[in-house]
Design a protein that fits this description.
arsenical resistance; Ptyr_pPase; Ptyr_pPase_sf; Arsenate reductase ArsC
């Protein structure tokens, strides 16, 4: 069975999609290929996002926002937009989900933590669907 590929998309690829990608990559331990991108990438990952992920031992300091490409969407089995109304190319045979989540942009760390925790809950549920325990 091929390794499933998940693409997380938000406008700036500086917050929600970065957290989701890092969390899924961490939990999947190589069982899922994970990417993230944005339609209008920011210059850097949100510092509050870096901080709250660091609290979990996940280092995003070397990550950077990436531009959304048609090729990335075509390669993905599951494309998840992060509640930001992103225009994403639609291809047959792909699974598309939209996770409505608060935007961490401009938020203090104590407001970003609950966003991170909700993303973590959703990522764990997605992982169980994609790679059932024992698979």
């Amino acid at each position: 069975m091929p390794t499933p590929e998940v693409l997380f998309v938000c406008v700036h690829n500086a917050g929600r999609s970065q957290m989701a990608a890092a969390l899924l990559d961490h939990h999947a331990q190589g069982r899922v290929t994970v990417r993230s991108a944005g339609s209008a990438p920011a210059d850097t990952v949100n510092p509050a996002v870096v901080e709250v992920m660091n609290e979990l031992g996940l280092d995003l300091s070397k990550e950077f926002p990436k531009v959304l490409t048609t090729e990335a969407v075509q390669a993905a089995d599951v494309v998840i937009t992060m509640g930001c109304g992103d225009a994403c190319p639609v291809f047959p045979g792909k699974r598309y989900l939209d996770w409505q989540l608060d935007d961490p942009a401009g938020q203090p760390v104590d407001r970003v933590r609950p966003i991170r925790d909700e993303i973590d809950r959703r990522v764990r549920a997605l992982l169980e669907e994609l790679v059932p325990p024992g698979a």
